[in-house]
């Protein structure tokens, strides 16, 4: 009886293995380790859609530190305060100093001597104490903000928010207009605190 039970159990185990391997248990032909021809992929998976020209235009943006790529438009800190309150404050706090985690703090000038670069002080890096180029603000904000609808700010709204952020960080006067000419001219407090990357391409580049 015990031997019969072992035979029955062994038979069931082989049946399970055969089912899992497509009926080829005990044989490598078309079974384990065998490479099966892949099925041809469909022309489309039926998900997603083509990006619209407006969406492409919002993402196809490249502003370098000298301001090349900045579009026409203008904005003031007063105008930016309205845009910030409507589209930014829910994540970064009403003043940019008390964000809702994990969003970053945007406003803060201390320490003004850049000492946190050499000693861990727990100070948060902000636009005012760390960013070397003001033009980076346009490139990033226009492309990635607000987080729930990136690319939806107009050029004027983006310049205005930048003006507000720079004024709150005590980088520019509150009445200074930001546009494609004035923004590249802003000298950020930390511009000269970084080591210039003078690496070249080719075999010596690492």
Low-confidence stretches: 1-5, 7-27
Secondary structure tally, helices: 7
The helix-and-strand class reads mainly alpha
Number of strand segments: 2
SSE succession = HHEHHHHEH
Mean of all residue-level pLDDT scores: 83
Strand order of the largest sheet: 1-2
Rough outline: globular
Could you tell me how far the N terminus lies from the C terminus, measured between alpha carbons in angstroms?
73 Å
Give the oligomeric state of the chains in this entry, treating copies of one chain as homo and distinct chains as hetero. Answer: single chain
Spatial extent as radius of gyration:
30 Å
What is the beta-strand fraction? under 5%
Sketch the major β-sheet.
2 strands, antiparallel
Provide the helix percentage.
25-40%
How does this model look, in words?
The protein has helices at 2-20, 53-59, 77-87, 89-92, 135-144, 155-168, 182-185, and strands at 74-75, 178-179. The protein is mainly α. The longest helix is centred in the N-terminal third of the chain and has 19 residues, at 2-20.
Gist?
The chain has 206 residues and is mostly helical. The protein contains 7 helices and 2 strands.
């Amino acid at each position: 009886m015990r031997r019969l039970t072992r035979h029955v159990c062994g038979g069931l185990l082989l049946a399970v293995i055969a089912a899992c391997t497509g009926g080829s248990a005990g044989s490598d032909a078309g079974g384990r380790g065998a490479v099966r021809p892949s099925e041809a992929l469909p022309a489309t998976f039926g998900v997603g859609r083509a990006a619209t020209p407006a969406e492409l235009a919002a993402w196809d943006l490249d502003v370098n530190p000298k301001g090349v790529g900045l579009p026409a438009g203008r904005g003031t800190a007063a105008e930016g305060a309205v845009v910030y309150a409507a589209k930014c404050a829910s994540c970064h706090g009403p003043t940019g100093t008390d964000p809702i985690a994990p969003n970053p703090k945007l406003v803060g000038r201390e320490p003004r001597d850049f000492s946190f670069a050499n000693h861990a002080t727990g100070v948060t890096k902000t636009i005012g104490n760390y960013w070397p180029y003001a033009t980076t603000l346009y490139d990033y904000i226009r492309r990635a903000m607000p987080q729930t609808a990136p690319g939806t700010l107009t050029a004027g709204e983006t310049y205005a928010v930048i003006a507000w952020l720079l004024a709150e960080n005590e980088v520019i006067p509150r009445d200074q207009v930001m546009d494609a000419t004035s923004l590249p001219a802003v000298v950020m407090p930390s511009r000269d605190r970084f080591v210039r990357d003078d690496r070249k391409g080719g075999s010596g580049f690492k």
